[in-house]
Amino acid sequence: MKVRTADRPKPALANRGAATTDDGAAEALMAAYAAGDRGAWEPLFDRLAPRLLGFFQRSLRDPALAEDHVQATFVEMHRVRRSYPPGTPVRRWVFTIAARVRVNDASCLDRSGPCAATRATPPTVPGESARDRQVRQAIDALASSERSIIHLHRFERMTFEEIAGVLGSTEAAVRREALQAYHRLRERLWTLGDDGERP
Q1: Within a 13 Å sphere around the CA of 77, how many CA atoms are in the beta-carbon half?
Q2: Which one of 56, 71, 114, 176 is separated from 17 by 20 to 30 angstroms, measured CA to CA?
Q3: Average pLDDT in the 34-47 region?
Q4: Confidence class for position 94, pLDDT limits 50, 70, 90
């Protein structure tokens, strides 16, 4: 799927750099883009695309599907850009859209387990250490909703209150699911590392 935003094709995800965490700059860019500044699109995309890609790759476990969801998120973000409240944290606003895109995808409506379209064995990551592979496999074994929470909490550094807002849930429910997910991760890592040495 080709995405066109601000009358130009979306840049390839593979060519983007690492995610940046300068939320203040992102808010200024988003406010400018919402106001009609097309020049704000490229730097805004550069800031958000890697973070969204990481979120979808971890929750969907399918690189191609993850890229499709990133594109769909930017399409929706463009469509509702004028509704962006200036000063609102862009990260939370965009991840709310991303979470809605994921849930609305027909192949991912089963929130009790991994997305039906992504149950194949996750690909091997080149250069990945044995320990990193164990951690990735442990996370992959979680349900899709649990992987989303873990990603937002551990990698996006969101609070449970913020995650609840993104996922349209309550803080208590998110906290409960996160605790269960972390417990399963610990158990899984203990099993994978059961060679006489605690992981």
Answers
A1: 30
A2: 114
A3: 93
A4: very high
Q: Determine the Cα–Cα distance for residues 117 and 106; give it in Å rounded to an integer.
A: 10
For the chain, how long is the longest CA-to-CA vector? 60
104, 109, 103, 82: which is closest to 93 by C-alpha? 82
Residue 88 phi, psi dihedral angles, 5° rounding: -70, 135
Are 146 and 169 in contact, with CB atoms under 8 Å apart?
no
Residue with tokens 């994978």: 192
pTM of the model: 0.67
∠ CA 44-45-50, rounded to 5°: 120
Contacts of 45 (CB under 8 A, 6+ apart): 10, 11, 16, 74
In 3D, which of 143, 173, 153 has the Cα closest to residue 61?
143
Q: Find residue 5's DSSP bridge partners.
A: 8
Q: Read out DSSP for 71-118?
A: HHHHHHHHHTGGGPPTTS-HHHHHHHHHHHHHHHSGGG--TTSS-GGG
Give the whole-number percent of the chain exceeding pLDDT 70.
Answer: 73
Instruction: Please state the length of the chain.
Output: 199
Tens-digit pLDDT profile for residues 127-180:
667 777 777 778 888 888 888 899 899 888 899 999 999 999 999 999 999 999
What was the pLDDT predicted at 23?
A: 72
